[in-house]
Amino acid sequence: MRATASLAEDRKTVKEIRSGRSVVLLTLAVLLVATGVVSLCVGAVNIPLAEVAAALTGRANEVRYEGVLWSLRIPRVLLGFLVGSALSVAGALMQGLFRNPLADPALIGASSGGALGAVFIIVLGSTFFPGIALLSDLRMLPFAAFAGALLVTWVVQRLATSGGYTAVATLLLVGVAINALTGAMIGLATYLATDAQLRTLSFWTLGSLGAADWQVVAWTAPFCLTLILLAPLWASALNALALGEAEAGHLGFSVEKTKVALIVLTAAGVGASVAFTGIILFMGLVVPHLVRSMIGPDHRGLLPGAAILGAIILVASDTVARTIVAPAELPIGILTAGFGAPFFLFMLLRQRKKALWS
Amino acid sequence: MVAVLTTENLGFSVAGKPLVSSVNLLVSCGEVVALLGPNGAGKSTLLKLLCGQITPQHGRVIFDGRPLDQWPPRELARRRAVLPQSSAVPFDFTALEIVLLGRSPHGDAASCASLALGAMERTECAHLADRIVTTLSGGEMQRVQLARVLVQIDQAAPKVPRCLLLDEPISNLDPAHQHGALMVARELAQEGVGVLVVLHDLNLAAQYADRLVLMKAGHVVADGAPDDVLTEQRIGAVFDVRATVARNPVCDAPVVFIQG
Fold first, then answer.
1. What span, in angstroms and rounded, lies between the C-alpha atoms of A151 and A135?
2. Is B110 in CB contact (< 8 Å) with chain A?
3. DSSP 3-state helix, strand, coil percentages of chain B (rounded to 5)?
4. Confidence of residue A177 (pLDDT cuts 50, 70, 90)
5. Beta strand pairing call for B26-28 and B17-23
6. Is the confidence at residue A322, as pLDDT, over 50?
7. Which of A201, A288, B109, B210 could pair with B103 as two cysteines, CB 3.0-4.6 Å apart?
């Protein structure tokens, strides 16, 4: 017991690790505010910082700037924060749930399912129910996307599960197949769509925050915030799941209930995000990994960390996407996939070395 | 002695093929029971039934006077821990973090660092505390997992009946650590914990267990003190070998020699 006491003194206690974690989270939060401010200043029209501050406090000197800020940039930054957080938290949840750092809401069909639901409402809805102005009814969109995301995720999960056991390799492969199928259906629907039906194929496959306005923010926020704010409730269960599904059960967690809850939360956040921003790839894969490398894999730090860093990365990417070729806009998915896809390959090679495929 | 884990006429079959048939088992507080038998005898299935991972078609499992399925999972987890045979952890947790996961049913992991380190010292892995678990060898991981189940059932009130189920806890360990791990099991029994351990090594079982339960083809074929269970005739019949039983010079337990 003497040796125990000295060992405990010599090494970092859990409390110290925790405080290290909160320093990182605090730094990220400061960066989040900075990113938001920069993103408000920069664009096709550059707005001086003083003007941004003035407009935010309702004392704008130039009406021109005030209009750009309040009707374009502020909702766009808010949508970026919400969607970036939601996708990253969803990624962390799926990786923890399926015990695989390569899981991603897009890979298991949540994103394409959400897009399918949204496209269905936009294109086919107005064909089959011409009397109802679904197109202008934004309220339908997140619900349809949520339903689509839930349906496709459920189908993928069912197909990959046999005898109560979900094989991760099968899950990812089924996800690829279902993604191709839903991708084809989205392509067909956009081909059938009339000019009035707004969204292009590139919007759905590469994503854009260009649709942001206050109404969109209002209809995305409840879904994304539900995911972001409720996810930490399952942090301890996800930690225990790292030991294995049976082991988490022996530690007193209900694995089946956790699975259902997390898949529904993910479908809600990812579905609503996809409905208004298209499929933004690789956020859910890359961001949790970056956070783990900063503060470790404990989900009590990982989930809030992924929420903050995801918001930073997406808004920063969007700022680049809309300034680099201004006045035109680069689809944001080109940026996230440009960085994310090589990263995914790197992870795949690393994991193959560890031989975790089972 | 207080019974902590009992089964009544337990049966489980898959597609009509019985894997476990009418097993009546009793584990009391303060004893080490070793579960033995050839491959495919139903040991793993029985262990899964005992820990509630699968539900029996016949009979039931009773933990501390209450059927297993009537226990709130968290309350059960504070008093009964299960050591898995082997486990890969997909993320870079440190060994100490893994041990602290054992406290999750108690919700006090933040204040248990020295408890966890104490357990790691007991299982001879305290020097690995800050190592990333994905870099540990199979034997090192087994000792870390053993420390985790120790802290899981650590109680402020040691009089509460507790139980530890260990599935081949020494399969990856060198001889020194095999004896170390089984010593820990013995110490726990002395503290009042009922320990059930699946083993393949008959001689280690005879040396460390109070009672041996021998299984074959889903049935319990013998249940008793090492001297009563490990007879030449019975070992020959159950394992399909020619066996010679002698005395272990170290601890006065039976020791089994096998001729192919």
1. 22
2. yes
3. 35, 30, 35
4. confident
5. unpaired
6. yes
7. B109
pLDDT in tens, A329-352: 888 888 888 888 888 788 777 766
User: What are the distances in angstroms from CA A235 to CA A256, A284, A300, B104?
Assistant: 15, 17, 5, 11
pLDDT mean over A84-108: 90
Residue B31 in contact with residue B1, Cβ under 8 Å?
yes
Helix axes B113-122, A2-10, angle to 10 degrees: 130
Structure confidence at residue A6 (pLDDT): 43
How many Å apart are CA A293 and CA B141, to the nearest integer?
A: 22
Q: Is residue A16 scored above 60 in pLDDT? A: no
d(CA A311, CA A29): 10
In sequence order, the 6+-apart residues with CB closer than 8 A to the CB of A210 are A76, A203, A322, A329
| B interface test, pick of A243, A254, A256 with most B CB neighbours within 10 Å | A243
Name which of A127, A166, A121 is nearest A145 in CA terms.
A121
The type of residue at A140 is: M
Q: Running DSSP on this structure, what letter comes out for residue B132?
A: B
Query: What is the predicted pLDDT for the residue at A355?
Result: 47
Nearest to B94 by CA among B76, B115, B117, B75: B117
The residue behind tokens 């226990």 is: B71
Q: How confident is the model at residue A132 (pLDDT cuts 50, 70, 90)?
A: low
Cis status of the peptide bond prior to A327, with omega within 30 of 0: yes
Query: A110-119 and A168-192 helices cross at what angle (nearest 10)?
Result: 20
Answer whether A347's CB lies under 8 Å from A282's CB. no
Among partner residues B53, B97, B126, which is closest to A7 by beta-carbon distance?
A: B126
The list of chain B residues with pLDDT below 50 reads: none
Distant-in-sequence, close-in-space partners of A208: CB < 8 Å, separation ≥ 6: A277, A278, A321, A329, A331, A332, A333
How confident is the model at residue A28, as a pLDDT?
Answer: 95
Tokens at residue B61, please?
């499992």
Half-sphere exposure of B32 (CA within 13 A, CB side): 24
CA B35 to chain centre: 8
Cα(A297)–Cα(A309) distance, rounded to whole angstroms? 15
Beta-strand runs (E) in A33-81: none
Integer-rounded Cα radius of gyration of chain A: 21
Contact state of A252 with B78 under an 8 Å Cβ cutoff? yes
Question: Does B23 lie at the interface with A, CB-CB under 8 angstroms?
Answer: no
- The four Cα atoms B97, B102, B104, B109 give a dihedral, to 10 degrees, of -50
Give how far the C-alpha of residue B251 lies from the chain's centroid of Cα atoms, to the nearest Å. Answer: 22
Q: Are the Cβ atoms of B53 and A254 closer than 8 angstroms?
A: no
Number of C-beta neighbours around residue A20 at 10 A: 15
